[in-house]
TrEMBL record:
Catalyzes the phosphorylation of hexose, such as D-glucose and D-fructose, to hexose 6-phosphate (D-glucose 6-phosphate and D-fructose 6-phosphate, respectively). Mediates the initial step of glycolysis by catalyzing phosphorylation of D-glucose to D-glucose 6-phosphate. Plays a key role in maintaining the integrity of the outer mitochondrial membrane by preventing the release of apoptogenic molecules from the intermembrane space and subsequent apoptosis. PROSITE patterns: HEXOKINASE_1 (PS00378), HEXOKINASE_2 (PS51748). This is Hexokinase-2. InterPro entries: ATPase_NBD (IPR043129), Hexokinase (IPR001312), Hexokinase_BS (IPR019807), Hexokinase_C (IPR022673), Hexokinase_N (IPR022672). The keyword Transferase applies. PANTHER family: HEXOKINASE, HEXOKINASE HKDC1. Its main location: cytoplasm. Residues 168-390, 597-831 form the Hexokinase C-terminal domain. GO terms for cellular component: cytosol; mitochondrial outer membrane. It is found in: Cytoplasm, Cytosol; Mitochondrion outer membrane. It is a peripheral membrane protein. Its EC number is 2.7.1.1.
């Protein structure tokens, strides 16, 4: 109900005609975008409005890691300052700043200054703010209705100023609103940050039915009666006072302390937020309560202490819930603005209550998630604050995974450059993104037919398939397949053993299908980089993923398969085509949708193929038509070009892999490695004492425990925390509730980065296709397969959103390949066979 009321308030505040009478002012901030990581330089900032006045020196580096240094000093804000006159206030600020600059040796520097002024201001531009009213414990004469920036400027003799962000003892929120909804500011394009000033919610009576006698009493005794009524139910400045008023009444009614009131209990402000926090602590709470009450000259019994704790809980719980309700309203608005059914977003949050109260943050998170199940919200403690150590260290560990849009665009552009380079003649043997010609020159046209065998090696499952294709009016594809295991010792044994094993599986399959005698044409999906000289020749460039059989690299895998068949001497097969899984996937989807000219795998490995114009492929003769190129983009970055976004965890995963230094992009984007990254982070957090009670269990040391399916389950929104704990337990990890929250967050950060990086790569591919075709807008279908794409609850959504964002001129349809790449391999085989029969190459 509160959420709905707040939603209505927001609409009112945004409307030109309704704004003058709206209590929630929805002030435009003239901040039009969020930082994108390309910011750099040295700045000063002052921060007025919280419990202390602070001066900061901030250095921001554009080294791609969004690193920054912050040096701060706090100054008290005594009553003479907060309740004196304007000139004194600004002089005081100037004095403090000058002291700060002296201590930091900045006296002779002229640095730009940002002014965080945590009070409601009407802005018409970035460097101006007219104070609408003082809130919280401030009431300085002669400042209301004046521009605080020019006052400060006067006091400081010309420093440039930025804008007020709210933080601190009060409560407030800002968010990015669509310009078209902000009728108070000209222009419809883009977005602008709106400072809601939600603390004033209820000032028109909208919450009167929810306010208690204690709220009314508190308000009457405050500096600004009738104002900031929502804030007075939530923020740290008032919580202690609310508790005091309740305790006082209970005591007077004889419900506490034997009915004996003390002078301290009668004194305004004697119970503060820090006391409430201390009383609500998990373990020491009860003894803290006793100590605090005794300090107020009360004589509490054990029962009194428990009751007082209960009062504290109720007051702070209400605070968290109300705050959550308004936040939920904003989140819903954001989601609707973006026309999304589900939205992932981060809320930057700061303030003493959130940071120091033992339970507030958790209650807030929980309530928000309950109110808006359609938003996946991450709460990020503002790093400038002096947050609870644990949260800060967790954020520090995860920060390098949060790639700003600017960095993603760089990744897209670098990928694009590598795609171009790989097609050049001079790049042969040198390019990291190899751009391998596949000799597949068209997508299916429906005339394919016949009976084929197919092998599908390199994904989660090894399959042998029989595929029957009918063309014409009875056009259809029938498939029979069997999955076979490939034991680890075979994947990493000798090449002969591997291919003998494959042939053994084929034999079993033929037997099982009762077609041992038939000499069927075979298409071989082999999901590793192969340099091809024709459709049925493929030299393995190097193993990737979990394979490392000896004596295969540099050899023709079709020959190896033929030899193994010969060695067995039991049946004969006509191996017609060797096909990468991306190509098979593109073909499978292309059979349904002729516009499918890209194949994407987001599974154990990560790779893309697409139809390229022959004239751009320098190493293949001929300029007519198109040929499918297997990009092998997994190797993107092997020359170090994206090392700056790799984290220490990525490096650890790489070092522990079968192919160190290779497939760096794949190792950040595909299922086989995501779990490993998660595991490395968890190990690190455990070492820091932030998880699993600081104990690294045997299970956590085991490589590969977090398979894609587990990550997907852990991240599923439908799963309650208890179920997450159960999954972790299955994996041998004994977790507390807090642990499971952190594990889920870690998984989320890692998989989101994977999806966004993959999206950046795909954006480069579709953009290239668009330019090839020379069109303003490109409509194209991408055939997709892979367990990460299929099973993970968010990967596909984030991937799609990223592509949309980074390739805005392309309308990309994603088509899930339901039938695997075997069908595509069979279609390719059919065409190759037909062309072969008519003597064409
Ligand atoms: C399968 C395809 O559906 O997906 C394989 O048939 C492909 O060819 C695989 O390699 C990729 O996904 P994963 O997750 O099994 O590696
Ligand atoms: C690896 C392989 C590539 C394959 C991909 C998806 O990147 O090198 O050939 O397409 O995994 O399975």
């Amino acid at each position: 109900d509160v959420m709905a009321r707040f939603q209505a308030e927001m609409v009112k505040g945004l409307g030109r005609d309704t704004n003058p009478t709206a209590t929630v002012k929805m002030l435009p901030s003239f901040v039009r975008s969020l930082p994108d990581g390309s910011e750099k330089g040295e700045f000063l900032a002052v921060d007025l409005g919280g419990s202390q006045f602070r001066a900061h020196q901030v250095k921001v580096f554009d080294d791609g890691r969004q690193s920054s240094q912050l040096e701060s000093k706090s100054y008290p804000t005594p009553k003479e300052v907060t309740q004196g006159n304007g000139a004194e206030l600004f002089d005081y600020i100037a004095d403090c700043l000058s002291d700060f600059m002296e201590t930091r040796n900045l006296k002779n520097k002229k640095l730009p200054l940002g002014f965080t002024f945590s009070f409601p201001c009407r802005q018409t531009k970035l460097e101006e703010g007219v104070l609408l009213a003082w809130t919280k414990h401030f009431r300085v004469r002669g400042v209301q209705d004046t521009d605080v920036v020019s006052s400060l400027r006067r006091a400081l003799q010309k420093h440039q100023a930025i804008y007020p962000i709210p933080t601190g003892t009060g409560t407030n929120a800002c968010y990015m609103e669509e310009m078209r909804h902000i009728s108070l500011v000209e222009g419809d394009e883009g977005r602008m940050c709106i400072n809601t000033e939600w603390g004033a919610f209820g000032d028109d009576g909208a919450l009167d039915d929810l306010r208690t006698e204690f709220d009314r009493e508190l308000d009457l005794g405050s500096l600004n009666p009738g104002k900031q009524l929502f804030e007075k139910m939530i923020s740290s400045l008032y919580l202690g006072e609310l508790v005091r008023l309740i305790l006082l009444k209970m005591t007077k009614e004889g419900l506490l302390f034997n009915g004996k009131v003390s002078t301290a209990l009668l004194t305004k402000g004697k119970i503060e937020m820090k006391h409430v926090s201390a009383m609500e602590k998990y373990k020491e709470g009860l003894s803290n309560t006793k100590e605090i009450l005794t300090g107020l000259n009360l004589f509490p019994s054990e029962e009194d202490c428990v009751a007082v704790q209960h009062v504290c809980t109720i007051v702070s719980f209400r605070s968290a819930n109300l705050c959550a309700a308004a936040l939920a309203a904003i989140l819903t608005r954001l989601r609707e603005n973006k026309k999304l059914l589900r939205m992932r977003t981060t809320v930057g949050i700061d303030g003493g209550l959130y940071k120091t109260h033992p339970k507030f943050a958790k209650r807030l998170h929980k309530a928000v998630r309950r109110l808006v199940p359609t938003c996946d919200v991450r709460f990020l403690l503002s790093a400038g604050g002096s947050g609870r150590g644990a949260r800060r260290r967790l954020d520090a560990a995860l920060a390098p995974f949060l790639l700003p849009p600017g960095t993603l665009r760089e990744v897209r552009d670098k990928m694009r450059a590598e795609l171009e380079y790989g097609l050049k003649r001079e790049a042969q043997g040198k390019a990291t993104v190899k751009m391998l010609p596949t000799y597949v020159c068209g997508t299916p046209d429906g005339t394919e037919k016949g009976k084929f065998l197919a092998l599908d090696l390199g994904g989660t499952n090894f399959r042998v398939l029989l595929v029957k294709i009918k063309s014409g009016r009875r056009r259809s594809v029938q498939m029979y397949n069997k999955i076979f295991a490939i034991p680890l010792e075979i994947m990493q044994g000798t090449g002969e053993e591997l291919f003998d094993h494959i042939v053994q599986c084929i034999a079993e399959f033929l037997e099982y299908m009762g077609i041992k005698g038939a000499r069927l044409p075979l298409g071989f999906t082999f999901s590793f980089p192969c340099r091809q000289a024709s459709i049925d020749k493929g030299t393995l460039v190097g193993w990737t993923k979990g394979f490392k059989a000896t004596d295969c690299e540099g050899e023709d895998v079709v020959d190896m398969l033929r030899e193994a068949i010969r060695r067995r001497n039991e049946f004969d097969l006509d191996i017609v085509a060797v096909v990468n899984d991306t190509v098979g996937t593109m073909m499978t989807c292309g059979y349904e949708d002729p516009n499918c000219e890209i194949g994407l795998i987001a599974g154990t490995g990560s790779n893309v193929c697409y139809m390229e114009d022959m004239k751009n492929i320098e190493i293949v003769e001929g300029n007519e038509g198109k040929m499918c190129i297997n990009t092998e983009w997994g190797a993107f970055g092997d020359n170090g070009c994206i090392d700056y976004i790799r984290t220490k965890y990525d490096r650890e995963v790489d070092e522990g892999s079968l192919n160190p230094g290779k497939q760096r992009y794949e190792k950040m984007t595909s299922g086989m490695y995501l779990g490993e990254i998660v595991r490395q982070i968890l190990i690190d957090l455990t070492k820091q004492g932030l998880l699993f009670r600081g104990h690294i269990s045997e299970s956590l040391r085991k490589r590969g425990i977090f398979e894609t399916k587990f990550l997907s389950q852990i991240e599923s929104d439908r799963l309650a925390l208890l179920q997450v704990r159960r999954i972790l337990q299955q994996l041998g990890l004994d977790s507390t509730c807090d642990d499971s929250i952190i594990v889920k967050e870690v998984c989320g950060v890692v998989s989101t980065r994977a999806a966004r990086l993959c999206g950046a790569g795909l954006a480069a591919v579709v953009e290239k296709k668009r330019e090839n075709r020379g069109v303003e807008r490109l409509q194209i279908t991408v055939g997709v397969d892979g367990t990460l794409y299929k099973l993970h609850p968010h990967f596909s959504t984030v991937l799609r959103e990223t592509v949309k964002e980074l390739a805005p001129q392309c309308d990309v349809t994603f088509m899930l390949s339901e039938d695997g790449s075997g069908k595509g391999a069979a279609l390719i085989t059919a065409v190759a066979k037909r062309l072969h029969n008519v003597g064409q190459k």
